[in-house]
Amino acid sequence: MIKDTLILINKPIYDTIRYIDTVFHIEGIDVYSVKAIEELILSQNEVSENITRNQALQTVLSGGGQNRYSHPNKLLYKKGRLYEVSENGKIKKGRKYCPFRRARFKVYYVKE
After folding, report:
1. pLDDT digits over 15-70, tens only?
2. Which of 27, 37, 92, 97 could connect to 84 by a Cys-Cys bridge, CB 3.0–4.6 Å?
C-alpha cells in the first residue's frame, strides 16, 4: 500500500431519559403544572434504550460509554503512519503544542 485514504463515519447511539417536571418557566413566570420531558444522551453501550435519570448520572460519573470527542473524518495512510486530512483536503503535518502537558506532540497516528 503506497497511499490510501480512510473515511470514518460516526454513528452515535442515544438513550432516552423520560421524567415528569412539575415546575417550568414561561417568560420569567413559574408555572406549576405537570409536564413530561424527554432527553437524549449518548448511550453507555451499543443498544438504544430508555433509562432513568439516576442511571444517566451513574454513566456520567463513572466515565463509561461512548467517547464524547469527535474523531477525524478522513485519515491518509502514508509510510506506516495515519495523517489527518483537513476539510480542504490538505494533510495536517508538524507538531501541536499542548498547554496542559507543556510539550509538543506529533499529529499522526502509528501502530504500537
Report:
1. 899 888 776 677 777 777 777 888 888 888 888 889 888 888 887 777 666 666 77
2. 92
Distance CA 48, CA 50 (A): 7
Contact call for residues 62 and 73 (beta carbons, < 8 A): no
What would the grid cell of residue 56 be?
444517566
Query: CA 42, CA 52: separation in Å to the nearest integer?
Result: 13
SS3 9: coil
From residue 29, alpha-carbon distances to 19, 36, 55 in Å are: 21, 19, 31
Q: Quick one: residue 46, left, alpha or beta (phi over 0 = left, psi -120 to 50 = alpha)?
A: alpha
Task: State pTM to two decimals.
Answer: 0.54
Grid cell at residue 32: 406549576
Q: Which residue has the cell 490538505?
A: 90
